[in-house]
Amino acid sequence: MYYPTTFDTIFSTKVYTHGADVDGVSCAVLAKLAFPNVEYELFANPEELNKKLEEDISSKIIEKYNAIFITDLPVFKPNLEKINENEAIRNKTIIIDHHIRSIDEDAKNYNFCFIEERLDNRFTCATELFYRWLYMKSFIFDLSEVFDYVEHVRQNDTWEWDAQTKFGDFSHKLSFLLNEIGPDEYIKNLCNKLLKEPVLRFSKEDEAKIKRHEELIKEELKKASKNITYLEDKEKNKVAVLFAPYFLRNEIPDYIRKTHRPYEISYVIIVSLDVCKYGQKSFRRVDGVCNLNRITAKMNGGGHKNSARVMISKKQREKMESFDDEKEALYYIVNQKYDENN
User: Fold this and answer.
1) To 5 degrees, how large is the angle CA 206–CA 134–CA 104?
2) For 91-119, how does the pLDDT look when each residue is reduced to its tens digit (9 = 90+)?
3) Which listed residue, 65, 159, 162, 337, has the most CB atoms within 10 A of its CB?
4) Would you give the DSSP letter of residue 203?
């Protein structure tokens, strides 16, 4: 496997990363463990990241940092080209991602990009890729608690926690903790654990917050399950669609898989209006072999085969809210192709 080589001495570090899940924020955790002066910025989706990158490159503000890491979100080709053409930025930038969109953007063709969807014959995540790069460059050491944390994050992000006994429960609860306390507090919390505690575990305060979030999930799942609607997509896949809070996007498919005759449902679309500026549609596979990255790419979205997303535009949100009937609004919005200007 190829690891890009770059700077040897690091003074000021900037991390652009995904702020909506454990994998993205854990890249900020690793950066703060490895480097003394880290500034991180969190983004809900690739569109927000690439808009900010374009601004920072144009204004040259990005050049003030000695090291730049862009993790867990795809960088689009125009920005890849701008980075590649600017030697001052290129020589201190590392892009790390595991999404198919990064492969589709030809990111692997740039020697400052480290893009892998799979490692060691199983799915990987940005945190694992970043950890391996940091370890190889001797910016971080082989501490068992850090290594275990990275594996917890990988199982959380790939949804392998459900089949595990040693790591599974703890791995899944990382999401509950993040949703309950928010990304900034989560980053502080995990940095303290990994730096100061000999064993990676939740505190009593953490456990109380996790339990509170578990109860909230149970309550919200009951509400959401009453409003599930079924339809067929253009490829004759049976799809469950519903409105639900963003934090339920990964819990709902698991709930459907266990309670709603999953062999008849290929995937679920969760429409969440409490994320991004105007909302987002999260696609999660339940059963079957459909490729959600391919399906959402046709709608200007993307992600992985088993999970992907499509944003909602301002005009789409306004049109959706003009419907008096909730099901009509749902049918309308799930079939819309994302267009920032429409």
Assistant:
1) 95
2) 999 999 999 888 888 889 999 999 999 99
3) 65
4) -
The answer for residues whose C-beta is within 8 angstroms of residue 268's C-beta and 6 or more apart is: 239, 240, 241, 242, 252, 253, 256, 283, 284, 286
Q: Contact 181/207 with Cβ under 8 angstroms?
A: no
Q: How many whole angstroms separate alpha carbon 333 and alpha carbon 283?
A: 13
The answer to whether 42 and 17 are in contact (CB under 8 A) is yes
Phi (first) and psi of residue 38, to 5 degrees = -120, 130
Owner of token pair 């808009």? 51
309: β partners = 282, 302
| b/e per residue 201-236 (b: at least 16 CB within 10 A) | ebeeebeebbeebeebbeebbeebbeebeeeebeee
- Residue with tokens 């999260």, as numbered in its chain: 282
Written as six digits, the tokens of 147 are 């290594």
Q: What is the rounded distance in angstroms from the CA atom of residue 119 to the CA atom of residue 1?
A: 9
User: Above 90 in pLDDT, residue 331?
Assistant: yes
**Structural tokens at position 294:** 């391919």
Encode pLDDT of 233-253 as tens digits: 988 889 999 999 999 998 998
Q: Which two tokens stand for residue 142?
A: 């082989």
| Token pair belonging to 111 | 């020697």
* Token pair of 97 as six digits: 């991602």
Q: Once rounded to an integer, what is the mean pLDDT over residues 67-71?
A: 97
